[in-house]
Amino acid sequence: MERKGSVRVDEMGKAEGRPARLSVGVVGAGRVGPALAAALRMAGHRPVAASGVSEASRRRAAALLPDVPLMEPAAVLAKADLVLLTVPDDTLPGLVKGLAETGAVRPGQLLVHTSGRYGTAVLDPALRAGALPLALHPVMTFSGTPVDVQRLAGCSFGVTAPGELRLAAEALVIEMGGEPEWIEEAARPLYHAALAIGANHLVTLVAQSMDLLRASGVTEPGRMLGPLLGAALDNALRSGDTALTGPVARGDAGTVAAHLDELRAHAPETVASYVAMARATADRALANGMLKPEFAEALLGALADGAGRADGGTP
Predict the structure, then answer these.
(1) What distances in angstroms separate CA 21 from CA 47, 68, 186, 219, 282, one per listed residue?
(2) How many Cβ atoms sit within 10 Å of the Cβ of residue 66?
(3) Quick one: 36 exposed, middle or buried, by C-beta within 10 A (0-12, 13-18, 19+)?
C-alpha cells in the first residue's frame, strides 16, 4: 500500500493521535494557507511549495513561509504529501476538477480544503484519482500576518472527512493548535451560514456604529465601543437571548422612532439594517418573554413606519 510520495492511512491514524511527518504544499497563498502551513511546520511537518499569483499573496508567503518556493499548482502537488487548497469557495470546485483531470493528484495524497461551505464531496474528482479528502475549516478571521498562527491556539475547526480519516483529520487540527468539531457533510452550508451571520455581519454592524458615533462627534469610537461590545458579546455567549438589552427589548417605541428619524436624516443607508435587526430582536425578545405583548404592537408599528419612509412611502 505504501509508495513514494504517498501517505498510508494507517500511519495517519496512529494510536497516539500524531500524524506522520508530512511534506506540505499550499495552493492559494491567501490569508489562510500560509498561516496553516506555518502552524504545521511548528508541529514538525515540512512546507515545501506554495502557489500564489498576486503580489500580496507572494508577500504573505514570504513572511510566513520563508524559503518555500512559489510554483504552479500542479508542481505544488508533485512535491507535497499534504496539500492545502486554500482558495475562495467559488474557485474550489473548478480547481479540484482541473487538478484531477490533468493528473496532478497522486494516489494516497492528502487533499485538505479550508472552505466552510463545502464538506468532502467537492473533492470527489480527486478522490476518484486516489486522493484522501479532508475538509478542515478554521473558525477564525485571518489578517494575513504572522499573528494568525498564534490565533489558531484554541481555535475551533469544522471537520468533515470519511470515517477512516477522521482520526487523521482531528490529529492535524490538534497539531495546528485547534479544537476539532465534527460537522456532517449535509450540515456544512447551515454551519457556514451561522458563522457568516455571527462574524461577517458583526463587522458590518460595528463599522456602521463607528461611523454614526463619528458623525455624532465622538472622536474615538473604538475606545467607546470596546468595553460595551466586549461585555455584550460575553453576555450573549453566556446567556443567549436573556442578554438582550436596549429599547427594542424594553418595547420603547418612541425611542426607536427617534432613532429612525435621525438615521433617515444623517445615514439613510443604515435604516434598512436597523429595521431588520430590530425586528429580529423583537421576535426573540417576545419569544422569551422579555418584550411584553402590549408594548410590542407600538414597537412593530414604529418599525413598519420607519421601513415605509425609508422606501419612499408615507407613514
Answers:
(1) 11, 17, 31, 52, 53
(2) 9
(3) buried
Q: In this predicted model, what pLDDT tens digit does every residue of 238-291 receive, in sequence order? A: 999 999 999 999 999 999 999 999 999 999 999 999 999 999 999 999 999 999
User: Torsion-angle region of residue 258: left (phi > 0), alpha (psi -120 to 50) or beta?
Assistant: alpha
Q: So what's the pLDDT on residue 305?
A: 87
In 3D space, the residue among 258, 242, 268 whose CA is nearest the CA of residue 299 turns out to be 258
Number of domains in the chain: 2
Whole domain around residue 125: which residue ranges? 9-183
Which of 148, 183, 218 corresponds to the end of one domain?
183
In the listed set 183, 214, 232, which residue is the last one of a domain according to the structure? 183
Residue 144 maps to a domain: yes
pTM for this entry: 0.85
What's 129's domain CATH number?
A: 3.40.50.720
CA distance 133 to 120: 6
Q: Give 123-126's long-range contacts (Cβ < 8 A, gap of 24+).
A: 123/96, 125/96, 125/97, 125/99, 125/100, 125/101, 126/96, 126/99, 126/100
In a domain, 147, yes or no: yes
User: Which has the closest alpha carbon to 34: 155, 138, 148, 134?
Assistant: 148
Q: What pLDDT is stored for residue 314 in this prediction? A: 45
Tell me the per-residue pLDDT of 6-44, one tens digit each, with 9 for 90 and over: 444 444 444 344 567 999 999 998 899 999 999 999 999
For cell 443607508, the residue is 269
